[in-house]
Amino acid sequence: MRRITLIIGALLLFPLHNASALGLGELDVQSVMNQRLDARIDLVSVKTGDIINMTVRLAEPEVFESAGLPRPYYLTKLRFEPVETAENAGHIRITTKERIREPYLSFIIEVTWPNGRLLREYTVLLNQP
Fold first, then answer.
1. CA gap 76, 127 in Å, rounded
2. Domain coordinates of the chain in residue numbers?
3. pLDDT tens sequence across 56-108
4. Cα 40 to Cα 30: distance, rounded to the nearest angstrom
5. Which helix or strand (DSSP H or E) is residue 9 part of?
6. In what order do the strands lie in the sheet with 116-125?
7. Contacts for 58-66 with beta carbons within 8 Å, 24 or more apart?
8. Fewer CB near the terminus (10 Å): N or C of the chain?
9. CATH number of the domain at 22-125, please?
10. Measured between alpha carbons, how far is 14 from 56 in angstroms, rounded to an integer?
């Protein structure tokens, strides 16, 4: 009985440990269809030094496949840049060098930093100019 109590206690503490983990906010798009993509994702609960050591990229094809999403070639043109904006704040800037001709993009990003890894799916609806 004591063992079960210890296991339940440990499980209750687990969410508290993850509460300070890095998170991703909503996607904010500043461009329209037939323009170069200019978007950003706010970083939530970022710690000092996380952004400097952060890597952001398009998820691997296997991740898309397991999520049931297509991974068209044009998604490989997305560029991700972690940007530190203030103490304990930042965002991920998403850009392209070429114009986006698709009305919407659906993709999964992978964020890695020294303390973890995070995958998240985003869908971008681009308005007509």
1. 21
2. 22-125
3. 999 999 999 999 999 999 999 999 999 988 766 889 999 999 999 999 999 99
4. 8
5. helix 2-18
6. 55-58, 104-113, 116-125
7. 58/107, 58/108, 58/109, 58/110, 59/107, 59/108, 59/109, 59/110, 59/119, 60/110, 63/108, 63/110, 63/119, 64/108
8. N
9. 2.60.40
10. 26
